[in-house]
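The records we work with from here on pair a chain with its fold. These numbers are not coordinates but entries in a learned vocabulary of local backbone shapes. To see the layout at work, look at the sequence and tokens printed below.
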Amino acid sequence: MNNLKDKVAYITGGSKGIGYGIAKILLGSGMRVAITSRSLQAAQQAAASLSNDPLRVLAVQSEVSSLAAETDAVKKVTDHFGQLDVLVANAGVGHFAPIETLSEQDWKSMIDTNLTGVFNSVKACIDPLKQTKGYIITIASLAGTNFFATASGYNASKFGLVGFTQAIMLDLRQYGIKVTTIMPGSVATNFNDHTVDEVDVWKIQPEDIGQMVQDLLNMNPRTLPSKIEVRPSSTGK
């Protein structure tokens, strides 16, 4: 995308964490953004903290596990901005426990949000992205290639997300739609009820992922980094 000015990005789970950091960077590059949350109030508060210009930022309530909700949310975005250029499928949850104690509810929550939720977001965005020859970026995790104890459900959702994203990359490039998955390691967010403080300074910051998204959008269109692993440059020790 040679010029990002006034391009439109739809960012799921954009009211905090990585999604918020991406929205902040893309706004700074001249783009317009729509951010979602399960809570309309949370989305509105985040949007207000990003910009006081409703022509630049739109807050939308949506539940990614529902295709109907995502379809309605994307329609609100295209009705408001007149187009859609980028989907950042970022919404995600994590529940960690050994398999013998991992609950069915927590398993379903991760699969429904981290995997089916991305399917729903992509399905809702395909038609408008065909019109703009847009870009889909999914936020996976290094847990999508590295398994570890207590993460059977999270690993399953993120391994599935990586495979899903690579497959749709092949499906959609015939329409000029580019697809990339970003697989971060430790990021300084409130994910899994973590409280961010000064000890997290060594971790990837949400704005770093935003910068990576911006760099992808600015890359020469003949080149597609389809899968990116990113780690902190130190261990924090």
Remarks:
- The beta strands are 8-11, 32-37, 57-61, 86-89, 135-139, 178-184, 227-230.
- Residues 8-230 form a domain with the Rossmann fold fold (CATH 3.40.50.720).
- Residues 9 and 86 are 4 Å apart (CA to CA).
